[in-house]
């Protein structure tokens, strides 16, 4: 019987000194762990990463796809498993991944992994990421990330889906939520500007309300309590903020808006 393919766990991190040790510990079943640290981190992320068994690279942030591809370039495993520093691989998911890689009859080049989120201290059941199925496990030689903000894997082959989930301990408090909104809307506005998209008033006036309604009513975010209300409302607000920032970039470049 052939040996089980080797697995590299990949993490990108910025200011994640508090979350990184537990994330890496939850990956102790992987053959190696690779951490790419954003050079603009202002806490002890690099020191913490180097204190573990992980392979560490510190590099300036270009975009999320480039950061993840940098981790891919360091990996040596036959397969890679990508997680964020605030995510945890549950024991059930770890066992499923090991069993999947050990199965000589598998036909897929990658696998999508369900996500379950804890937002503002509450385990979400409706308006969080419970419907997300990102491609997180794939053959190293058949996948590469594309996209500057909401990056995805360009996979040369078919993908399946795993049953067990990653636990996403995201947005512990309002300060973190507002900081993330500011960071991501900056990146999205820059992407829109680089792509030459025009600013449209409808994006500012209608899309935020549509986003709120989709999450709060369509996904039943109201069933996630007051935390669900805050999440859905601020998700809508972030849409307005990114389009306003896009408008500011156009105006600063001398364009009409």
Give a quick set of tags describing it:
about 260 residues, alpha/beta, seven-stranded mixed beta sheet, four-stranded mixed beta sheet
Outline the low-pLDDT stretches: none
| N-to-C order of helices and strands | EHEHEHEEHEEEEEEEEHHHH
- The number of distinct β-strands equals 13
What's the overall geometry?
globular
Mean pLDDT: 93
- Round the Cα radius of gyration to an integer and report it: 19 Å
Largest sheet, spatial ordering of strands: 3-2-1-4-9-6-12
Strand proportion, as a percent range, falls in 15-25%
Q: Estimate the helix proportion, in percent.
A: 25-40%
Tally of contiguous helical segments:
8
Sheet of most strands: 7 strands, mixed
Q: Which class best fits the helix and strand makeup?
A: alpha/beta
User: What is the end-to-end distance?
Assistant: 64 Å
Description:
The chain is of the alpha/beta class. 39% of the residues lie in helices and 23% in strands. The chain contains eight helices and 13 strands. Strands 3-2-1-4-9-6-12 form a seven-stranded mixed sheet. It has a four-stranded mixed sheet with strand order 5-13-7-8. The longest helix is centred in the last third of the chain and has 28 residues, at 225-252. The radius of gyration is 19 Å and the shape is globular. The model has no long low-confidence stretch (mean pLDDT 93).
Secondary structure layout plus pairing:
Blueprint: E1 7-13, H1 20-25, E2 32-38, H2 45-50, E3 55-59, H3 64-74, E4 79-84, E5 87-89, H4 91-102, E6 110-112, E7 115-119, E8 122-123, E9 135-139, E10 143-146, E11 152-155, E12 159-161, E13 166-170, H5 174-194, H6 201-205, H7 207-218, H8 225-252
Parallel strand pairs: 1-2, 1-4, 2-3, 6-12, 7-13
Antiparallel strand pairs: 4-9, 5-13, 6-9, 7-8, 10-11
Helix pairs in contact: 5-8, 7-8
């Amino acid at each position: 019987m052939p040996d089980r393919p080797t697995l590299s766990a990949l993490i990108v991190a910025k200011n994640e000194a508090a979350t990184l040790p537990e994330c890496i510990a939850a990956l102790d079943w992987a053959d190696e762990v690779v951490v790419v640290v954003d050079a603009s981190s202002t806490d002890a992320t690099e020191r913490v990463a180097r204190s573990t068994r992980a392979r560490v690279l510190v590099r300036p942030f270009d975009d999320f796809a480039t950061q993840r591809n940098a981790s891919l370039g360091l990996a040596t495993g036959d397969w890679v498993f990508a997680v964020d520093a605030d995510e945890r691989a549950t024991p059930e998911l770890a066992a499923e991944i090991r069993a999947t890689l050990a199965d000589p009859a598998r036909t897929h080049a990658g696998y999508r992994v369900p996500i379950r989120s804890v937002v503002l201290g509450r385990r979400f059941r409706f308006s969080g990421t419970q419907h997300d199925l990102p491609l997180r496990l794939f053959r190293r030689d058949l996948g590469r990330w594309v996209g500057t903000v909401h990056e995805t894997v360009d996979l040369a082959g078919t993908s399946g889906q795993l049953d067990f989930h990653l636990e996403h301990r995201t947005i512990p408090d309002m300060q973190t939520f507002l900081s993330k909104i500011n960071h991501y809307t900056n990146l999205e506005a820059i992407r829109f500007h680089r792509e030459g998209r025009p600013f449209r008033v409808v994006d500012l006036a209608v899309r935020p309300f549509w986003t709120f309604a989709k999450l709060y009513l369509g996904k039943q975010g109201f069933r996630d309590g007051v935390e669900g209300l805050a999440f859905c409302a601020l998700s809508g607000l972030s849409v307005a903020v990114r389009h306003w920032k896009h408008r500011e970039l156009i105006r600063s470049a001398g364009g009409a808006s």
